[in-house]
Write a structure and sequence with these properties.
The chain is an alpha+beta fold and 324 residues long. The chain contains seven helices and 16 strands. The longest helix has 22 residues.
Length: 324
């Protein structure tokens, strides 16, 4: 067997080990999220005028999903608000949208008593059914359904968009404590789990041309009773009387080729483009995410075209079955 074959086999074995840990036991994945702190007397009111969730109504210790949008209502970043009562608010965001979120918040900071700072401490993401057992073994306080501060960091429960695999974001001292007792999984396995759970990645699966409703239900991330925030008009209009022409779906195919960038077509028209791709958790085939036109039903067969090659693919409902 060639060196390339050995490397490929080793990578496949590592992936199967990692994905089994993430979906059946537990593993840590360095990074993947960052925490932005907004501090000052105006921190809460400042954020309430910008993001879709009610910061003022987020109880101390709670974690609530939110959206950061353009003034026109298009997506910029997913956020998770860390409720606090001491004049500072933490925002967890995907690492791919850290710079986007900081730039947007800074752009709209006019005459307010608030500072914006990215937490520079190390972070890790703990995933799997055994995550709470690892926190206990590492002597890291468990946050229940929300978040709490540790001696020199924090731990927050940050559920996937869908599915039931637990996920925690750890910052600071908790990272080293967990590293001593939890195996580390690679990025490819995490991507497979993320895609399976139907969670889009900022600046990869969506950008500032994407409407929030295209990525799934927004109810958990939007407070429809609060005052104005960036992009509110489009969110409210679509929620009350509109529908989007495309929605986030899963894409599956046989084989192990990456589908990123593949154009999806039916005999009638183009229906989408694959934006994320990873090996299927079950070890056979490839899965991906794509915004697919609404008239294409789940279970439909489409053609994925990339690099002058064509591949048969299936449009799937999200989340994917982890065992599939």
């Amino acid at each position: 067997m060639s060196d390339g074959g050995v490397t490929e086999d080793a990578a496949g074995i590592r992936f199967q080990t990692d994905i089994a840990a993430l979906t059946q036991r537990v593993a840590a994945v360095p990074g993947r999220f960052g925490v932005i702190w907004i501090r000052g007397a105006d921190a809460v009111s400042f954020l309430d005028g910008l993001i879709s969730q009610s910061v003022a109504a987020t109880e101390p210790g709670a974690v609530r999903r939110s959206l950061l949008l353009t003034p026109q209502g298009k997506m910029r970043a997913f956020l998770w608000v860390l409720g606090s009562a001491d004049g500072e608010v933490g925002l967890i965001t995907q690492s791919t949208t850290e710079d986007i979120a900081i730039a947007d918040l800074t752009r709209f900071k006019f005459r307010v008593d608030a500072t914006i700072e990215l937490d520079s401490r190390p972070t890790t993401t703990l995933v799997g059914p055994g995550a709470e057992d690892v926190l206990l073994a590492a002597d890291v306080p468990r946050p229940g359904q929300g978040w709490l501060a540790t001696q020199a960091g924090l731990v927050a429960r940050v559920p996937f968009t869908s599915g039931e695999i637990p996920r925690f974001v750890l910052v600071g001292d908790a990272v080293a404590a967990v590293a001593a007792v939890a195996p580390v999984a690679g990025d490819m396995a995490y991507e497979s789990a993320r895609i399976s759970m139907g969670e889009p990645l900022g600046a990869v699966d969506f950008d500032d041309g994407t409407i929030s409703h295209e990525l799934g239900p927004v109810e958990a991330a939007v407070d429809f009773t609060k005052g104005c925030y960036l992009g509110q008009e489009l969110v409210a209009r679509i929620d009350s009387r509109g529908r989007v022409i495309q929605s986030l779906r899963g894409i599956s195919a046989t084989g192990s080729v990456s589908m990123v960038g593949a154009r999806l077509t039916t005999p009638e028209r183009d229906v989408g483009v694959v934006t994320s791709s990873a090996p299927a958790p079950g070890g056979s085939g490839t899965i991906g995410l794509a915004l697919v036109r609404h008239e294409v039903d789940n279970g439909s067969q489409v053609t994925a075209t990339f690099d002058d090659e064509q591949l048969a693919a299936t449009v799937e409902a999200l989340p994917f079955p982890i065992g599939g």
